[in-house]
Amino acid sequence: MPLSPEQKAEIESQRAGGERTLRAVSPGMEARLYTAHEVLDHGFVRVIDYMGDDAAICQAARVSYGRGTRSVQNDEGLIRYLMRHWHSTPFEMCEVKFHVKLPVFVARQWIRHRMANVNEYSARYSILDREFYIPAPEQLAAQSTQNNQGRGDVLQGEEAQRVLDLLRDDAMRSYDHYEAMLSQDGQQGLARELARMNLPANIYTQWYWKTDLHNLLHFLRLRADAHAQYEIRVYAEVMCEIVADWVPAAFAAFRDYRMDAVSLSAQGAAALKRRLAGEVVTQENSGMGAREWREFQEVWG
What we know:
Its EC number is 2.1.1.148. Helices cover 48% and strands 14% of the residues.
């Protein structure tokens, strides 16, 4: 299970103990604080701490004192203006710290976003648990024939079962050998920092990941996208729900101007104008490559 009874008891204790504060708080984030949201088969995401809210973004943009005297409607309008015109600094005034449990191969993809403070569970000092990510059958897919970093058709029947059996058997065998190397029963036992090299990339790790809202939204725009790898996308989708409760005006603007928006290259804009003028535009006379043309057609028909 993602959470042990001891971890659940600790979370309940954290949520039960409240402290009076003079700083601005977000009611939506207060409701989320410390709660573990389960992801994949053994993973989770939970908020450990945060700073700021929608009003903090506006306060920074106006460089005002206190929470200001502007109405919520004016604040929403300002936030939408800032998002629409790519003013990033006010969004950096909000920060959040997550506790994430995730497979190692997802962590290695995640860490490519070099805009956070990270502290990961150390397998040099501690022994990792026997917990591995094993995909659900519907997530077992062949290599895409059109995208070198994507998935194609879902594996079926005996082939799917063969892959699942290999994943489980390899993970368990590797962990058995890991324990055997660490064992001090009749031997000195290998150092933990060396024994860990034998573990597979689907074993679970944990970290604290702290970032500001601007960089978090950039992460979510890429990783909550339909084209992102499923195993990191499901984490991003849970984080989207959390951010929507934390800074609802900022997230609504982000969804409108980033996640659900469409951007065009100069060639794409020109092709669209020519189409609107009644001209027949093809890939050959559009100035776009095959992949860009295909993406253009997916949006504009």
